[in-house]
Design goal:
alpha+beta; five-stranded mixed β-sheet; 4 helices; 5 strands; 24% helix; disordered N terminus
């Protein structure tokens, strides 16, 4: 059974992920994403369509569970685990490659609903 009607899905906001993260999202191992201020418009309870960044292929439908502002220096094990990474230093290293100078980030928790 579809979680949402197809016509309603067309009006959903979108979020994109690198293709390599698709299996982690669908398996429930990756339950959050960290973005900069330009992508901090998501809100708790919002339903969004997830697509691959590289080829715009639909992955699934997500419900935003929580949105939390977090400073780069305050990232901890909770954040790394939700990103399906074993260590905080790995999370910080990856984030610095994407956001070289950002200190204020947005931690967006989600669950797959369709």
């Amino acid at each position: 059974m579809e979680y949402l009607e197809e016509s309603w899905c067309k009006s959903l906001d979108r979020i994109t992920f690198f293709t390599r993260l698709e299996r982690q999202i669908l398996s429930g191992k990756k339950t959050a994403t960290i973005r900069d201020k330009s992508e901090s418009h998501y809100y708790t309870g919002q339903v969004v369509e997830a697509f691959t960044h590289e080829d715009e292929r639909k992955i699934c439908i997500l419900e935003i569970v929580d949105v939390e502002n977090v400073e780069f220096e305050k990232l901890c094990r909770k954040h790394a685990k939700a990103e399906n990474l074993p260590f905080v230093f790995m999370l910080k290293w990856l984030l610095r490659k994407i956001y070289p100078t950002e200190s204020s980030l947005c931690f967006i928790s989600f669950k797959v609903v369709g």
